[in-house]
Amino acid sequence: MIRFLIKGLLRDRHRSLFPLLTVTAGVTLTVFFHCWLGGVFGDIIDYNARFTTGHLKVTTKAYAREADLFPNDLALFGVDSLCRRLQDQFPGTQWSPRIRFAGLLDVPDENGETRSQGTAVGLAVDMHSAGAPEIGRLRIDQSLVRGTLPESRWEMLISDTLAVRLGLEPGETVTLVGTTMNGDMAMRNFTVCGTVRFGIAAMDRGAMIIDLEDCREALDMPDAAGEILGFLPGESYDPIEVSRIASTFNDPFAGVQDDFAPFMQRLEDQGGLSEMIAYIDHFSGLLVFVFVLAMSIVLWNAGLIGGLRRYGEIGVRLAIGESKGHVFRAMLAESVCVGAAGSVTGTAVGLALAYWLQVKGLNIGSFMKEASMVMPLVLRARVTPTAGVLGFLPGLFSTVLGSLLAGIGIYRRKTAQLFKELEA
Amino acid sequence: MNASNGPIARLSGLVKRFPMGRGHFTALRGIDLQIMPGEFTGVVGPSGSGKTTLLNIIGSLDTPSEGSAVVLGRSIGELSHKQAADLRNHHIGFIFQTFNLLPVYSVYENVEFPLLLLRKPAEERRKAVLEMLEWVGLSDKIRSRPSQLSGGECQRVAIARAMVKKPGIVLADEPTANLDADNSHHILKTMVRMNENFGTTFCFATHDEKVIRYLRRKILLEDGRVTKDETVKKPRLRRAGT
Ligand SMILES: Nc1ncnc2c1ncn2[C@@H]1O[C@H](COP(=O)(O)OP(=O)(O)O)[C@@H](O)[C@H]1O
Ligand SMILES: [Mg+2]
Asked: Burial of B123 by CB count in 10 Å (0-12 exposed, 13-18 middle, 19+ buried)?
């Protein structure tokens, strides 16, 4: 009997192949979009962490309030000892001081007259100490377009776009005109050692990167830094661990009114990222819900139509002496097979597509020229274990639901009624 | 149950009403009737007279509104779904106007299906299926699909499917309505031979003269009532169709 039913299932494409394709397509899309969203948002958060927020960030309370303006007059002092203290208190987490600043780049000609000029946003990180984790963290080495990484003092990397605009070649000299901590004008010559492109619109439009020590000297900020970024081990974000560290650090300063007291923020406390994270959660939840719903409706209808189409066949089977319960169970068993097969195929295809995107990436740079958010220009997917379950269960569920509903229609009808429909 | 001595079907005061609009429509208005084992009988009457309704009740596909229908010792109105299915499975064969073969299965598989439901062993199934296909003259088409057969051939498969389990009664509702004269005579002759050879009871619903002339008993149904019930001594079988 089972062989008989399987034969029927395999031969009747309306019963096997078409529902299978529908389930496969639905599950593929669900899985793929889930991975894709996970990848996009995950990358955005990751890039933000690397370039702006860290997993944690220590600044003065006053600096935190105006962080967008790089208020270096409100910078932290005694940064070396503060870093050591952080390292002791939270071993495993890496603490990296950075200075952000704005400045004017002046390119002189051979007579010392201005040849070209442009404003740039500066980032000063440690580039010379042993290991220099910041170089890897910002992927500076991978982002190098021309020239080399800074090897000695007073060397500068600038974004390739800016270099082209200013007509700068690696090896040429520029003058950085900026502001010291105390509000005085600061001028310093740097050699452009190389140009970089990060694939992040906000950085690529016009950024300069210099060594932290050079910056401290140029802007007169001894042992100071605007911010100290903390990165969890493995550089992967863990909201619970991060909250624990932040509250442990902040608790002793809770009652302190001093604007210059250090203050630690989590990634999601900064620059609207908490809304972003909540939004991501909601959005991906919503998207999956919509997909699952749409797929359920399609499959349910496919199941219903399939069931209606089979009223004739079912009528004959009942007349020959098959019981309604047997017909019903056989239909459910068929849909479980079709649903499971389609879900497996769909999950496999969806994950394969997502994996392909994860490895290859999709360049959307041309659409994102104006974005000011730190955002990667290469879209990637992130394959996660949930993605598998996510498509599989609804795929199976909606197929079975579809034929369940069709089956109930058959169950509730009088046997003779099925015959009327059969004769029509 | 003692099917061999008692009637195959005994209907008394049988009334069938269908709900219709706010009231109902009465399709059978008090039928008293017995069908004995081995009969080759038919319910004859114009379209809409209630023939199909009557056959469906005898076949346990539908239930009486009033009165009783006892088929092979079972009271049709009192059977559960499962018991009704069981009765059909073991004792009743159906033949329809539109053949109603299962399109995805071969001729052989269509005929085998009732035996699968009865959980007969494979060897017994094979013998019975091949025997029946020989009876209807389709031994050379066992691998064909219904879509590859003519109408007459399809109805012959349906006859084999109804007969393969050697049921107590075969119910044939307008079996010739979609067939031409030659094919009609061919399948009627086959059924007459089966009736004589296996003693299977046949009950037709028809208004087709070609069928009526083969019947040994004609039950005339008009407007839900039996208006005439005559037994023919010598059906004009030998003259027919040659
Ligand atoms: N399920 C039903 N609901 C309502 N009326 C029905 C139903 N089945 C049959 N009838 C009515 O009962 C009458 C007899 O139908 P039927 O037994 O099919 O006649 P026949 O087979 O002799 O042509 C017809 O008038 C038909 O419209
Ligand atoms: Mg009829």
From this structure: exposed
Whether residue A271 is predicted with pLDDT greater than 90 in this model: the reply is: no
* Structure tokens given for B129: 């299926």
Contact A50, A199 (CB under 8 A): no
What does the alpha-carbon distance between residue B25 and residue A23 come to, in Å, rounded to a whole number? Answer: 45
Domain coverage including residue A225 = 56-231
Percentage, residues of chain A above pLDDT 70: 91
- For ligand 1, atom 2, the nearest C-alpha belongs to B18
At what angle are helices A324-360 and A385-412 packed, to 10 degrees?
Answer: 160
Between A312, A321, A416, which is nearest B62 by CB?
A416
Position A135 in a domain: yes
How many angstroms separate the CA atoms of A359 and A73, rounded?
43
ipTM attached to this prediction = 0.89
Question: What pLDDT, on a 0 to 100 scale, did the predictor assign at position A418?
Answer: 61
The model's pLDDT over A272-287, given as tens digits with 9 standing for 90+, comes to: 677 777 777 787 778 7
The residues, any chain, with a CB within 8 Å of residue A73's CB and separated by 6 or more, are: A181, A182, A183
User: CB–CB of A371/A48 below 8 Å?
Assistant: no
Give the nearest chain A residue to B116 (CA atoms): A1
Domain shared by A187 and A335, yes or no: no
Percent of chain A with pLDDT over 90: 37
Q: What predicted TM-score, i.e. pTM, was given to this entire model?
A: 0.73
Cβ of residue A312 closer than 8 Å to a chain B Cβ: yes
Residues A304-311 have a mean pLDDT of: 73
Min Cα–Cα distance to chain A from B60, Å? 9
Q: Is residue A370 part of a domain?
A: yes
Which residues in chain A touch residue B103, judged by CB atoms under 8 angstroms apart? 12, 313
Reported confidence tier of residue A123, pLDDT bands at 50, 70, 90: very high
How many angstroms is it from A317 CA to the middle of ligand 1? 22
Say whether A403 sits in a helix, a strand or coil.
Answer: helix
Domains and CATH numbers, chain B: 38-64+80-231 (3.40.50.300)
Q: Are residues A202 and A329 in the same domain?
A: no
- Chain-centre distance of CA A295, in angstroms? 26
A295 and A195 in one domain?
A: no
Shared-domain flag, residues A8 and A97: no
In this model, does residue A391 exceed pLDDT 80? Answer: no
Report the DSSP pairing between strands A114-125 and A207-211.
parallel
pLDDT average, residue stretch A178-189: 92
Which residues of chain A make contact with B117, given a CB cutoff of 8 A?
A: 1, 320-322
pLDDT band at A239 (very low <50, low <70, confident <90, very high): confident
Query: Which pLDDT score, from 0 to 100, does residue A282 have?
Result: 80
| A329 and A220 co-located in one domain | no
Residue for token pair 């994950």: A351
- Residue identified by tokens 């009704």 is B84
What mean pLDDT comes out for the span A113-140? 89
Given a cut of 70, the residues of chain B with pLDDT beneath it are 1-5, 234-242
Q: Could you please report the per-residue DSSP string of B151-200?
A: HHHHHHHHHHHHHTT--SEEEEESTTTTS-HHHHHHHHHHHHHHHHHH--
- The answer to whether residue A414 is domain-embedded is yes
Q: Which residues pair with A146 in a beta bridge?
A: A195
Return the closest-CA partner of residue B224 out of B56, B46, B50, B32. Answer: B50
Q: How many domains does chain A have?
A: 2
Residue B113: which of A320, A415, A416 has the nearest Cβ?
A320
Which candidate, B111, B115, B95, B45, places its Cα nearest to that of B203? B95
Residue A109 lies in a domain: yes
